[in-house]
Amino acid sequence: MEWSSLLLYDPEAPLIFSRFYFWGYFAVVLAVFSLLHKRPLWRSGWLFAVSLFFYYKTSGLFVGLLLFSITMDFLIGRASAAIDDQLRRRLLLALSVTLNLLVLGYFKYAHFVVANLNELLGTSFEPVNYFARWANLAWDAHFVENKVLLPVGISFYTFQCMSYAIDVYRGDLKPVRNLIDFGFYVSFFPQLVAGPIVRAADFIPQIFQPYRLARAEFGLAVFWILNGLAKKMILGDYIAVNFIDRVFADPLRFTGFENLLALFGYSLQVYADFSGYTDIAIGVALLMGFRLNQNFNSPYKARNVAEFWKRWHMSLSTWLRDYLYIPMGGNRGGSLFSWIMLGVIGAALILLTGWWWLPVIYLSVIAAAAVLIRLSPNARNAITTNLNLMITMLMGGLWHGASWMFVIWGGLNGLGLVVYKWWKRISPWEKSAHWLAHAWKVLFTFCFISFTRIWFRCPDQETADHFLGQVSGSFGLQYAPEVLWGFRSVFAVMILGFVVHWLPESFKQRYRERFAALPLWAMALASAGAVVLLYQTVTADMVPFIYFQF
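Above: the chain sequence. Below: its structure as tokens.
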């Protein structure tokens, strides 16, 4: 291997946590960090530099786009804090939000928008990568101009930049004084490409605090790293490569029973993959003295859809709540933005389906809602609250990807939240403490969440239709014994994953603390043994983290 290959970007070998290369890189980061940790600005400068290198190794020249977002929001934040005039501060906030959304929209949704315009108008437009065109003109390069590539992690760092600008405007946060500290906050490599979404108010004060790491915290950091690797490599990758990916690639080749098991398995895989990443991110950050917020709280223990979204991808859920749902009116009422979004969503659905009768039904529903709002203040509050909730979930779906499949997934979850709000008022089991009622609510919630993931996992509606058709029409229960035996190792791992997930939190807390309290020599031996075991499960090709695509 040439030394240059260690430093240059290779799209076939991104710098991810499950590669040995990352841990060599992290060892160098820690070694230099240990010399600089008592000097905050030097510490920030070093971590900013290595974070940019990490992003370059993960996403190539898109590191320039990251630098643009950092510089833009830093300058706008400084200018906003220096101005007393409220109108000018609002204009600067609008500029920051607009530029961030334009960057995100261009790189993430250009193909989506153009494809839908072509479908609607019968045209054959193609998106143009202007950055590639300018590079080709400037340096006589040969970048592809008719394809806009998606930068890794753009949704995560864009939301971080936007929350910073909004918090500075609201006066909840003082602007960062120098570009190095702000760049370090935005680009901090453990959480840069797949979260959790870190709030400036939570992280920036830590930059200026002295380095501290208690002995128990060191043990917990090691535990979270090993725990995350185990989730990713033993649970997520193993069941995906050996069963789930095969079924979703062609649902018609498998019975409905196999499709259903793959769906439940995918719920486990996406949790193990994403929460595994954030576990590692939390552990790696903690070793450097930085504390990231929890992003998952045993989501499949949730007893209803509302509780699930308080436990799943908590940094995104709270971001959408604080910066979208509440500004729209939340549960207090609607806003002009709410009604504008209602019109946009309706138009999109009509254009998407092409059903001639849909405009009549849609406008009739809006008219009926308007009448109810006029007649009853209670109805007004209920309608606008549910409207805000649905818009938030639809936008959350679109955040995940430029596809109507993600919009449908978000809409189904929004519908689940709305239905639950009404159901809990009349449910005879809502307040029951009986274990059977509790188990039923957890099981029902898990099944509903798994059902919505058909549209999250399937690449298009045709594949989703095939999946649903197999489950509903060709279930093949008579083949169950043969299927269970043929994939026995996969299902054994799945059962193990669910059992561990559903263990009481108090039990999990005890074994975390016991690991953290081990003598260093014992912890080193346990870690070495865990690493050897983990890398016995590695497949021929490393499986990227699922949320890298977002």
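The radius of gyration is 25 Å.
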